[in-house]
Automatic annotation (TrEMBL):
EC number: 3.5.4.16
Domain GTP cyclohydrolase I residues, every copy: 9-186
Record-given protein name: GTP cyclohydrolase 1
Record GO terms (molecular function): GTP binding; GTP cyclohydrolase I activity; zinc ion binding
Pathway membership, UniProt: Cofactor biosynthesis; 7,8-dihydroneopterin triphosphate biosynthesis; 7,8-dihydroneopterin triphosphate from GTP: step 1/1
Annotated Gene Ontology cellular component terms: cytoplasm
Gene Ontology biological process terms from the UniProt entry: one-carbon metabolic process; tetrahydrobiopterin biosynthetic process; tetrahydrofolate biosynthetic process
Classification via InterPro entries: GTP-CH-I_C/QueF (IPR043133), GTP-CH-I_N (IPR043134), GTP_CycHdrlase_I (IPR001474), GTP_CycHdrlase_I_CS (IPR018234), GTP_CycHdrlase_I_dom (IPR020602)
Membrane among keywords: no
């Protein structure tokens, strides 16, 4: 887990509660600063982790065709408003020289990157870059679909609106047929 300063977070939360006109010493809020500090330790545990470390187990398998793991649920935190965004990630890659990894390793990379303050575009690129660097596949495509609470509960207030980001590396960059096939498999 990431090492965080609990007392500093607790003081900041007390100050926020006071700033919005609440009494941080009332019964319902008394332990809120401690709960928030503990929660931040959990939801930001990916800050000091490298998603490339997820791929500690690589197998040699005679398979150089599409590998797709879809509908990987995640929750992350928008760095602009410190509100969650959540949705599904989809990872596709074309192995090279029989170099594959366990499917859980792909999901773990998403989990690591999701547990830090960020924007969806960076999350998508970071996962694609990690896979491309470590597995050295012919190509990688990462698609992330997410609903952002900063658009749902504040601002334009548009529940249900989803942002879709993609990151494409290697041979898939110029292969529109393969990209279409991947998108079709994701959405069917």
């Amino acid at each position: 887990m990431v090492e965080i300063n609990h007392s500093q977070i607790e003081e900041a939360i007390r100050m926020i509660l006071e700033a919005v006109g609440e009494n941080p010493d009332r019964e319902g809020l008394l332990d809120t600063p401690k709960r928030v500090a503990k929660m931040y330790e959990e939801i930001f545990e990916g800050i000091n982790l490298d998603p490339k470390e997820s791929f500690d187990l690589v197998f040699s398998e005679e398979h150089e065709e599409l590998v797709l793991l879809k509908d990987i649920s995640f929750i992350s935190m928008c760095e602009h408003h410190l509100l969650p965004f959540y949705g599904k990630a989809h990872i596709a890659y074309l192995p090279r020289n029989g170099k594959v990894t366990g499917l859980s390793k792909l999901a773990r990379a998403i989990e690591i990157v999701a547990k830090r303050p960020q924007i969806q575009e960076r999350m998508t690129s970071t996962v694609a870059d990690s896979i491309y660097e470590i597995l050295d596949p012919h190509g990688v495509m990462v698609v992330i679909e997410a609903e952002h609470m900063c658009m749902t509960m504040r601002g334009v207030k548009k529940p249900g609106a989803k942002a879709i980001t993609t990151a494409v590396r290697g041979s898939l960059v110029n292969d529109s047929y393969a990209r279409s096939e991947i998108l079709n498999l994701i959405h069917n």
